[in-house]
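Renewal narrative, Specific Aim 1. Our central claim is that a sequence can be written position by position from structural information alone. The example that follows is taken directly from our test logs and has not been curated for this report. It begins with the structure tokens describing the chain, in the order in which they were read.
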């Protein structure tokens, strides 16, 4: 997911931590084992403990087994650890290591991967512990990690005020309009397991609440589902071709024309510009949001640079055709057909490469140009066969549409 110039090996982090400790905590290597030693005066510096005196490489290995929350707690235990856990190279290492394993990312938590990279000479060794002046010019990888890590951002979400909970309960008693979403994308047509078919036959995940009688702009009424057995919403599927053409192209591994979009030209950079077909434009103007099903399987997703540029251009065309003043939310289901078994994954690759069985959600966001969008967006890892991850994405989409869950 990161280029070779972004890779950060463990030796660089250990060297940075060692340089900082040797400069600002030269006495941390000394361990006082004599319990009969008199207690220091109030003016003397506290003596280091056993953990503080361990070699830096062992301290680093210990931190690699801790969760982000545990590392923050470790930093609150002493002045020494407060300084050590704030090393930007340490958190950059964690960021590059863990991002491929994150199951989701959104417009609020997307790390700024294009930030200036910190060299070995631009570490905490250049600032005095306890002062933040030197950190202002550096990129705060710790904040970026804690902002993007799914477990951290869920834990640190602000709690809902009591009045909002009461209001949400009262609103649930009043019938509300049914949100409608348009679903499209190559993942609907290229995968071996049909996400749409599984969705229609999974009452334990999303029960089908019926097919509305009304027609949406002459294309179809879509299918209504029930989220948490309470909230109805409608999904209108937009296929680029008919079923026979899709099946033939999937078996023969061939690309086919897309009837949803019209190529109108290229921009100054040579990138394609698309316009939705007239019937698709009508749909875009009435739906409350969009679900883009991306193919996240390795070797199939974005087989060419041109195909990736087409995906970006088609997403922008749909969002630009949406009616209303408020930007419509975009949920990207980064989808694979099946979840590989743990045994197969362990045999295929070591732990650090296990995410390669699918395109990481952070890479998917970059590939589709989502950070440049003004619309709220989210990328959610999804498995078509088990529908794993789908409910998390639908929950986010409903919240963006004003549904109180």
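The sequence written for that structure reads:
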């Amino acid at each position: 997911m990161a280029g070779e110039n972004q890779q950060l090996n463990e030796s660089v982090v250990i060297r940075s931590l060692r340089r900082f400790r040797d400069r600002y905590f030269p006495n941390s290597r000394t361990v006082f084992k004599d319990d009969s030693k008199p207690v220091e005066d109030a003016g003397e510096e506290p003596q280091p403990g056993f953990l503080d005196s361990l070699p830096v490489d062992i301290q680093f290995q210990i931190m690699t087994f801790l969760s982000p929350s545990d590392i923050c707690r470790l930093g609150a235990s002493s002045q020494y650890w407060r300084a050590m856990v704030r090393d930007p190279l340490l958190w950059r290492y964690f960021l590059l290591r863990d991002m491929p394993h994150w199951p989701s990312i959104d417009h609020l938590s997307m790390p700024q991967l294009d930030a200036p990279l910190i060299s070995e000479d631009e570490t905490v060794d250049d600032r005095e512990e306890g002062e933040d002046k030197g950190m202002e010019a550096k990129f705060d990888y710790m904040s970026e990690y804690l902002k993007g890590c799914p477990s951290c951002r869920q834990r640190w979400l602000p709690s809902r005020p009591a009045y909002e909970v009461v209001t949400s309960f009262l609103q649930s008693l009043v019938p509300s309009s049914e949100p409608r979403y348009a679903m499209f994308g190559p993942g609907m047509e290229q995968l071996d397991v049909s996400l749409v078919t599984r969705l229609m036959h999974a009452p334990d995940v999303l029960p089908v609440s019926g097919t509305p009688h009304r027609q949406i702009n002459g294309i179809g009424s879509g299918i209504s589902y029930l989220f948490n057995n309470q909230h109805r919403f409608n999904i209108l599927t937009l296929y680029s071709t008919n079923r026979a053409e899709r099946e033939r192209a999937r078996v023969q591994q061939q690309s086919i024309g897309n009837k949803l979009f019209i190529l109108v030209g290229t921009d100054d950079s040579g990138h394609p510009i698309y316009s939705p077909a007239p019937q698709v434009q009508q749909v875009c103007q009435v739906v409350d949001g969009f679900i883009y099903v991306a193919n996240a399987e390795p070797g199939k997703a974005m087989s060419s640079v041109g195909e990736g540029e087409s995906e970006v251009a088609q997403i922008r065309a749909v969002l630009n055709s949406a009616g209303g003043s408020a930007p419509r939310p975009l949920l990207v289901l980064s989808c694979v057909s099946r979840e590989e078994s743990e045994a197969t994954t362990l045999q295929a690759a070591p732990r650090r490469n296990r995410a390669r069985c699918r395109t990481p959600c952070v890479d998917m966001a970059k590939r589709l140009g989502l950070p440049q969008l003004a619309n709220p967006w989210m990328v959610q890892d999804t498995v078509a066969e088990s529908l794993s991850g789908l409910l998390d994405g639908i929950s986010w989409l409903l919240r963006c549409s004003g549904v109180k869950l």
